[in-house]
Amino acid sequence: MPASSPQVAVITGAASGLGLEMARQLNGRYRLFLIDVNAEQLQGVCQSLTEATPFVCDLSDAGSISQLAADISHRQPDIALLINNAGITHRSLSEITRPEVIEKVMAVDFFAPVRLTQALLPLLKNSGSKVINIGSMAGWMPVMARAGYCAAKAALHQYFEVFRCEMRHYGVSVLMVYPSFLDTPIEQNALSGSGGKTRHARSTVGRVHSAQWMVSRVLQAASQDKERLFPDTFTNLSSILYRLWPRLFLQLMSRKFAHELEVK
What we know:
Blueprint: E1 8-12, H1 17-26, E2 31-36, H2 39-47, E3 52-56, H3 62-74, E4 79-84, H4 99-119, H5 121-127, E5 130-134, H6 147-167, E6 173-177, H7 185-188, H8 211-223, E7 228-229, H9 233-244, H10 246-256
Parallel strand pairs: 1-2, 1-4, 2-3, 4-5, 5-6, 6-7
Helix pairs in contact: 1-8, 3-4, 4-6, 9-10
């Protein structure tokens, strides 16, 4: 990626976590269009960066995404990167998770990236942009107490694998990123089965990595024009175990996440 460029990087969920770190590491290399639902926090982030424009948007609302895309398109930017990073999760067993919680997770983690990418597609095709989607290893293998999150990330994976093939001849490329457990606010703000904030501690497998560690690998993969990034070796091996010996994987996962069964 260029050391200095007037091109634009669009980042969702940019007020905290991976999105904030992404903005920091891209600062000075691109004009930044930063999107988040938290207006005050987003404004503070933009003031700390070189050339950043805030766009406040509730990505769970289709109408808000349409207005966001119109606001961005009106500026006729040369978009180099569209980074679909914003996401939410839940930690609750399927039996106690309300349908509206699953719908909200699907709205932010799956429908929002699809809607925003589709709405900006004329600009993406005109610029030969790269779309970077922050997926999850939960989209490849089951994780107890995260059925809705797993479903949303699996849908994201499948949609953009097809999208990549269809957009290749326009020069639009896609990097799918599959992190495992990260030290970011998405887990601190996980929803409960009733839609509030969950109070029990999360279970993890393998090492919990920082946002800085993750973003440096994402940007390196983007600069190498990779199509998929599996940054965590341990979790990647776990996904292979699931595909080859699913019963063994499920037994081991159930033991590791056993305390989730006690949360009612």
